[in-house]
Design a protein that fits this description.
Elements (H helix, E strand, L loop, with lengths): L6 E10 L3 H15 L1 E5 L2 E4 L11 E10 L3 H11 L9 E8 L15 H4 L1 H11 L11 H6 L7 E5 L6
Antiparallel strand pairs: 1-4, 1-5, 2-4, 3-4, 3-6
Helix pairs in contact: 1-2
Length: 164
């Protein structure tokens, strides 16, 4: 890859708790093969149904990356990293934003609705790229995350830099 890449993207990586840090590391290594990681958020544990030791819990981390790929080829490469991007599978990698592109395609919406519907995704995204201005809402991710209280089901797990 060249040193200066043309496109900026924000990606969230999710793993089930049972697969844990090992699975997150594997997905981040695969992501590094197709892009250049610029920043990474902390890893957060999202507990389901307020069961703090539940194996149904998930680990979430967001990464700001650069790539020379256009959105569709990059998205296809991301789908190969996770388990096809299905919700609550063993692992998923989801494209949240690509530059300031607005795309209403149900197969690849940009910015991804997870930024509004999943508070853990927004929290991680704001840590990875807080100054990114949401092209529809007109607010930075830092501003958006400040408008929501932290969910009770969310806890800091470890520093994202440990995944490298």
């Amino acid at each position: 890859m060249t040193d200066v890449l043309t496109n900026q993207a924000l990606v969230v990586v999710v793993s089930d708790l049972a697969s844990g840090e090992r699975h997150l590391k594997k997905m981040v290594r695969e992501l590094e093969k197709i892009s250049k990681v610029k920043t990474i958020s902390s890893v957060y544990k999202k507990n389901h149904h307020h069961q703090y030791d539940s194996l149904n819990s998930q680990l979430w981390v967001a990464l700001r990356v650069e790539t020379d790929d256009d959105p569709r080829p990059f998205y296809q490469k991301l789908r190969q990293i996770g388990d096809g991007g299905t919700q609550y599978s063993r692992g998923q990698v989801q494209l949240l934003v690509f530059n300031s592109l607005i795309q209403l395609d149900p197969a690849m919406p940009l910015p991804h609705p997870l930024l509004q519907s999943e508070k853990v995704a927004l929290k991680c995204a704001a840590e990875a790229w807080g100054q990114y201005e949401h092209p529809i809402l007109g607010q930075t991710l830092n501003e958006l995350v400040m408008s929501y209280p932290d969910p009770e089901s969310l806890e800091f797990y470890f520093q994202g830099a440990q995944l490298f």
